[in-house]
Amino acid sequence: MTDLSVRRARAVADNDARLAARPSARRRLGPGPRVPGALALGPLLLLLAWLVASATGVLDPRTLSAPWTVVTTAAELVADGRLQSNLLTSLRRAGLALLLGVGAGVALALVAGLSRIGEAVVDGPIQVKRAIPTLALIPLAIVWFGIGEEMKIILILTSVLVPIYLNTHAGLRGIDERYVELAETVGLSRWRFIRRVALPGALPGFFTGLRLGVTMSWLALVVVEQVNATSGIGYLMTQARTYGQTDIIVVGLVVYAVFGLVGDAAVRMAQRRALAWQRTLGG
């Protein structure tokens, strides 16, 4: 090896060592350092535009209530207890359906991802559900389950299940086959293989599906709470629509948006911690 080749090899090794010692170092071709409060920046800019448009009269209050009107209305709803009671109902529906949907989605993804027969049985129905919007299922769901809580939970659950299944299944099928060969070589049982290889390898896909699932739970909640509901934020908005109370409608939209944003932020935080061992552009 020539002296030039040796110097180049040493330079590459030194650079790799510096990057390993400083994983957060700024790279010219990367996305750059993290921006504090980046998740809230976009919504704050939207709020600023809303404020300016309302204050200058560009935005007609009959079309969209001004921010200060919405804040006043929210305070009134809190004072008489309507906002808290309906919000708790919505959170209970969305939380229970999300929990059940995540469990069902992961279980079905394991069945389809680790077995060709399981994939043949499971994947087709999931793709069919993926093509059918939640709103189209409501009439049939009412016939099957009535108009009570069971119908609402099942519709939200099926909406959550699809992105969890698709992304976890893709994560499982993306695991390097050499890890499977290694697991067979060391004699891992099926259960230990799932726990030590399959589930950790599918985590990136699972978290992507979970982010989509959290969003889908709120989207489905908006739909089901406006159909034969007697409580919840969607019910509150439906009542306000009947009487032309746009300020209450906007309060409901803001509540949905805030909880959707908070849920996504919580999942992203959990994802960063669970996948801290990965060195990626998002790290």
CATH class: Mainly Alpha
Q: How many domains is the backbone divided into?
A: 1
- Give the helices and strands as they follow along the chain: HHHHHHHHHHH
Strand content: under 5%
Radius of gyration of CA atoms, rounded to a whole number = 25 Å
Low-confidence stretches: none
Distance between the termini: 37 Å
Number of strands: 0
Largest β sheet strand count, sense and barrel closure: none
Briefly note the CATH topology name: MetI-like fold
Write the layout of secondary structure elements.
Elements: H1 3-21, H2 38-55, H3 67-79, H4 82-113, H5 116-131, H6 134-145, H7 149-173, H8 177-185, H9 190-224, H10 233-242, H11 246-274
Describe the structure.
The mean pLDDT is 81. The protein is mostly helical and 283 residues long. The protein has a single domain, classed as MetI-like (MetI-like fold, Orthogonal Bundle). The longest helix has 35 residues, at 190-224. It contains 11 helices and no strands.
Task: Please give a quick description of this structure.
The protein is an all-alpha fold.
Features:
283 residues; 11 helices
